[in-house]
Amino acid sequence: MLSWLTRIAMACWRPGRQYARMNKDDILNDDDDSTTGDSLLWSRDLEKHSFGEFSFAVVQANEVIEDHSQVEAGRDATFIGVYDGHGGPDASRFISDHLFLNLMRHARERGTISEEILRSAVSSTEDGFLTLVRRSCGIKPLIAAVGSCCLVGVIWRGTLFVANLGDSRAVIGSLGRSNKIVAEQLTRDHNASMEEVRQELKSLHPDDSHIVVMKHGVWRIKGIIQVSRSIGDAYLKRPEFSLDPSFPRFHLPEPIRRPVLTSEPSIYSRVLRPNDKFVIFASDGLWEHLTNQEAVEIVCNNPRAVCILLSHPVSFWLFKFRTLIFCSYFLYMSGNCKETSQSSSTYGS
């Protein structure tokens, strides 16, 4: 017999809707979405979630998008995922199709949602994608080089859970003592540009002098990839998926002795407080041009405005020259950015 927690877990997303916009055609069918006349840019205005509202904006770098994202908003819980793909769309699409379902399956089995449940859902998604790679690599060998960063947020019973692999980032905006908005980064960037990541890799691979290589002015793992954690990238995790010299971009001179990349996420949880006003979930294209503080100030100074980033000069520059894809979600909690709430009951029981 299912426990009461299990019944809640099964029901919490049931009334919800899924929001994912991966091409312009979907936007043109929705009267309430914002359009700009550009087929590589789109956004969605405010929608309700279990603890407030959300909106999003996407700038696409080219016609074939490797990123996917989703929001599952139900009566008692909210799920957000930003999947920044590389090498192709297969991994990010797979995550979008399976991670949320894996989370719900584990939640039903355990009767709750926790850091461990989120970790298990990510692990199941990685295992599923590697199974797909194993089945497909004979006819599509380059699927072994397809991967994706993965940033996930879940609000459940007043607690925010965040899991991250790669260099997408979650930043929360909270009101400080002087009633000014303050940014707090909730995730750790798993990117070889970070000294701590390079040291971590060197300590895990003391016998490999080329585990991290400076190439064209950028630190890369094995001279190939910048992120140290991901879903997919099977050729850097298991010797069976090594690519031969006919694919020079991904060929390793020596077989790997142990996984170079990992699918172990960084997990963070936080009980939401009355002064927590919104969370930004965004891929690295945003954070290369805005600091955490700049981003939260833009959101705070343009409360509940659709395409707020697109009206900002720095982000407009990003859009205009398309140097990188970015996908940004703005998850608002109840209450105005400029006001402090008087009761934590705003966030539910």
Give me some keywords for this one.
8 helices, 26% helix, single chain, 349 residues, Phosphatase 2c, domain 1
Task: Briefly characterize the structure.
The chain has helices at residues 4-11, 24-28, 90-110, 115-136, 195-204, 284-287, 292-301, 313-321, and strands at residues 17-19, 33-34, 41-49, 52-59, 68-73, 77-83, 85-86, 147-148, 150-156, 159-165, 169-175, 181-185, 212-215, 218-221, 231-232, 266-271, 276-282, 326-333. The chain is of the alpha+beta class and 349 residues long.
Please, could you describe this protein's structure?
The chain has helices spanning 4-11, 24-28, 90-110, 115-136, 195-204, 284-287, 292-301, 313-321, and strands at 17-19, 33-34, 41-49, 52-59, 68-73, 77-83, 85-86, 147-148, 150-156, 159-165, 169-175, 181-185, 212-215, 218-221, 231-232, 266-271, 276-282, 326-333. The protein has 349 residues and is an alpha+beta fold. Strands 2-3-4-18-17-11-12 form a 7-stranded antiparallel beta sheet. It has a 6-stranded antiparallel beta sheet with strand order 1-5-6-9-10-16, with helices on one face. A 3-stranded antiparallel beta sheet has the order 7-8-15. Helix 1 runs antiparallel to helix 3 (90-110) and helix 3 crosses helix 4 (115-136). 45% of the residues are buried.
